[in-house]
Please model this.
Amino acid sequence: MFKKILIANRGEIALRIIRACREMGVQSVVVHSTADANSMAVRLADESVCIGPPAGKDSYLNIPAILSAATVTGAEAIHPGYGFLSENAQFARMVEEHGFAFIGPKPEHIETMGDKVTAKQTVKQLGLPVVPGSEGALNSVEEGIAFAREAGFPVIIKASSGGGGRGMKLVEREEDFAEQYSTARSEAAANFGDDTVYVEKYLGRPRHIEIQVFGDEHGNAIHLGERDCSLQRRHQKVLEEAPSPVLTEEERQEIGQLSAETVRKMGYRGAGTIEYLYEDGNFYFMEMNTRIQVEHPVTEMITGIDLIQEQIRVAAGEELSLNKDRIRFRGHAIELRINAEDPDTFTPCPGTITQFHCPGGLGVRFDSAIYNGYKIPPYYDSMVGKLIIHARNRDECIRRARRAIVETVIDGVKTTLPLHDWILQQPEFHSGDYTIHWLEKQLAEKEKNKK
Model:
């Protein structure tokens, strides 16, 4: 086992990794920008190293500075968390070339799954179902239109290296294809440095279902059930829950085992998430995230398994500490992503937290790095915490989540807590009858009724 791990991230995920290290008896080193000098992660890590000014490109994306920090502190491994460099194959490769262990997948798997076209082709060969789409990247508008005519409109154009909804365009009519194709390529080039795009059949009422998978270097692979991430705004997840309220036991077993078998065939190492669109009883591969997910606590709550500790053990060369026969799923869990944003306009609201009170009680977990007097910097993602609830069943979980929201005090900045309270009261959420488009439509209708 490692004696010291460097954490190449910030905020709540850095703190989450520090906690896992401490429970394992492993020392932690956290890198930070000047803007995060007073962060909770810096306060609680065994060591900290300032690696640059506030801008991410000069600090948390500064590979030479991170590798230098690992060298001078004597770290043996680097954990990238999520975001920043977590899915950067070049970074993973450089970490290993410099003699450190990368707490994540092999660089080649990050590379393969980081390109949406290659990923789709790879998993299709391994037996996963995929959304009908172009065979590879589009070379011209005409090629895309030809596919769309055959599949039938609407279709969706996606950036091969994309994510978070950028470089993604819905095309409902043939006469709009050329313009949307050009826009998608421009957005892809601006956001990812790669203007390659492909096209898929657009599903009208899908759910977003993802499977948590794990593999080790000894040929073992497991799945830890699904998470339903269908509540989204602008392709960004807002609330996640497990298990999904719409899957049958047969469906979750089938897609879980299929996902685990895919990971085993790949020889995949560490934590990963295979994401699917689900509609009318059918699953369609969407992408694979080769890192720990923001919503991993949902899975931890229903399994009792520390996924970060499992990541660390696997990176150290150990076998998975679990097998499918020992995994037990208990109750229901919901995660609410709390952002420092106006709950109506979604405008980021950085500022100073004047008062903070953490909710508590049975089945309540709050993952965050904020505290009284903490200044939320304007340079990074606006998420300031995750409220995770566990209960015996879904109805009890929803009631407990609403109770926990009432107890949560974050003064000095606006947050999305009121939005979550509103979502939890909606009949469609209670019945589970919603799709990835539901929330945006509801918010648009809500805004319309105000006027």
In short: The chain has a mean pLDDT of 95.
